[in-house]
Amino acid sequence: MKRISIIMAIIISFMNTVTIFAENNDNVRTYKYESDIKMNGVISSNDKFFNIQDNWKVKNAKVNLVFTKSELLDVDYSTITVFVNETPVKSMKLSGKKEYKKTTEVDIPTDLLKDGYNQVSIKAYKTISDKVCRDDSNTANWLVIHEESSISVNYTYKSSYNLISNYADTYFNLDNGSNVETTLLVPNNYSSGELSAGMILSADIGSKLKYDNLNFDFQLYKDFKDKNNNVIFVGKEDNTPADILKLLTKKEKSNLDKNCVIKQVLSTFNKNKKMLLVISNNDELLKNAAKLLSSNSLISNLNKSSIIINEKTNIDDLENKEHSNRIYLGELGYENILMKGPFSQEVIMDINAPKEKVVTNSSRLKFNIRYADNLDFERSLATVYVNGVPIGSKKLSKDKSDNDTLEFDFPNEVAGKNYYQIKVVFNLELLDLQCVTRDTDNPWAYISPTDSYLEFDYKDKNELSFNNYPYPFVKNDMFNEVKVVVSSKLTSKELTNTANIIAYLGRETTYNNGNLSVVEENEFKNEDKNSNLLVIGTPTNNSIIKDMNSSLNLKFNNNYSGYESDDKIKFIGDFASQVSSIQLIESPYNKDKNAMVISAVNSKYLNLVTTYLTNMELTKSLEGDTIVLGENSYKEDLSYNIKEESENEKVTESKGLNKQSVIFIIVAIFLFIAILVSVLLLIKKYKI
């Protein structure tokens, strides 16, 4: 019996080292419709995409429909049907009652869901009378799917293997709200190297969860209390508590001056949780270890629970810049762009350009398409809209139905943006068919996602403005020589605030090749002045803010007890000391670098900044180069150094000349030469 007990204990111990147990609590992810969808005519449809992550175990899912319809609809024939990945899951009649924002829930069978993008289609059949052809153009034949509609997924996290390759699946999970179920810990007496490595990992959280509003804790070891969280601990040997250091083997501890250990173990705080250790006595190796963990491609093959790296370990991502300006539809998750049915069918795609770039009028798109060959080709065509502006149409052809292309350049009026909504509308007309009388999959049109793309031509946007944030701190998908300057010995609250601000910057990164490091204000050196600076604190606890005061847009007064009034903003009484500011300026130390200074007279007002620099919606709402924040939602967007640029300059300026301009210049030069030669010959002939 004793022998059996020992064997069972060994088996249980082994299983604990192999898997991590998921939370018992369910998680819910909600995908909103974001805007009202108007569905007119007898037959209409809409598609919505949502994502299932590969480490989710879906328990149930549903579509929450909120809609309003015309009260004139025929109750005997008007219906609405919900499809999931092209499989119908529920149909219902549309009653003749006038109900504003009627709510209904539709359960989604989990066996219809797949990892990655899934599609919910809502198709409506609506009639007012027995004259269906006339109903198709009747303005009273309508249905609105309201923006309150959503798709919700209830899930738990799958068990993951105890491997470094499962790093993201283990540590970057969200609870029901926006909290990451992992705490980053550094020693109580941390060094700048330990802090830098922790902030690189914080940026990676933002990069891995770039589409979620999130927050997480970055704490001193002594303050850690949430034992139900997984833990990432970064530290040097002398700073690491004994109960953590003992988790390393003698071999792993043997040469921490020249090596860094990355090791996943059971948490010392909760045996059902995981702890990732990053330990070295070398500051640079700590940062390299954090950069290695930030690389999706490099850690994907680390199918082990621990690894030792040294200065020879290559931790840099391979940058794929071959098609950096070319964005394929498949990369955006559009896997099955198929439109079915006669007459007008459309698909909408959303694309974001880099914040530090401006899209020029030399940009273009090329979509490879196929369509049915039974169309009335005299009347069938495809039209492309960019941000609501039609940029071109093409007549469909029977000869090219199996292999056709839509290829258009961007006109001036759609250039100069960072966000693009691409809408492709197919008019699929059939011979001898003048109106829709029933739903049909015939005809059809298809856009190939693997070889259809947008090719952006960019010019650099060097303006210091929150419209371009997080530029200049992120450029070309990586950190742009960023030095974070903080006050000495931050509290856990201050560490958490700083880490969440860094995580927002990380949303815009793809590669780990950039440079991000943290230094305390009393360690700030001359070589640090050659970086883009992110300075956080008060004049009292961060001397660099005092040193930069004369260069700030909004300056502190002589005794640093409040901000000075100027021609942009006036302060009355104590209000000057009860606000915080975020300021983008040229670096006073290096004319080729920039700085963002986050400051206040009192540290408690710095908490106001964190909300605005970590929430996606709020950050995108910021304008100008200086933000003033106060209690009770007070906010002022100010512009001190932003140059006004005419709309014509914004949309037509390009890095180089476009093709038409080059041709024009060449022709003009030849004409000029021809005229000059003719004049010289005339002079010679007539001896003028």
Please provide a written account of the structure:
With 688 residues, the protein is an alpha+beta fold. Helix content is 19%, strand content 33%. It has 14 helices and 39 strands. The strands form 9 sheets. The chain has a 7-stranded mixed sheet. Strands 2, 3, 5, 8, 10 and 11 form a 6-stranded antiparallel sheet that branches. A hairpin with a 7-residue loop joins strand 36 (580-586) and strand 37. The longest helix has 28 residues, at 659-686. The radius of gyration is 30 Å and the shape is globular. The model is unreliable at 1-24 and 646-660 (pLDDT under 50).
Give the topology, please.
Layout: H1 2-18, E1 19-20, E2 27-32, E3 37-40, E4 43-52, E5 56-69, E6 79-84, E7 87-93, E8 102-108, E9 116-125, H2 132-135, E10 142-145, E11 150-157, E12 160-161, H3 167-171, E13 179-186, H4 192-208, E14 215-220, E15 230-235, H5 242-245, H6 250-253, E16 260-266, E17 274-279, H7 283-293, H8 296-299, E18 306-309, E19 326-328, E20 337-340, E21 343-352, E22 357-359, E23 364-371, E24 381-386, E25 389-395, E26 404-409, E27 419-428, E28 444-447, E29 453-455, E30 458-460, E31 474-475, E32 478-479, E33 482-486, H9 492-506, E34 516-520, E35 532-537, H10 543-548, E36 580-586, E37 594-600, H11 607-614, H12 616-620, E38 626-630, E39 634-638, H13 647-652, H14 659-686
Parallel strand pairs: 13-14, 13-15, 15-17, 33-34, 33-35, 35-37
Antiparallel strand pairs: 1-12, 2-11, 3-10, 4-9, 5-8, 5-10, 5-11, 6-7, 6-9, 16-17, 16-18, 19-29, 20-28, 21-27, 22-30, 23-26, 23-28, 23-29, 24-25, 24-27, 31-32, 36-37, 36-38, 38-39
Helix pairs in contact: 4-7, 4-9, 9-11
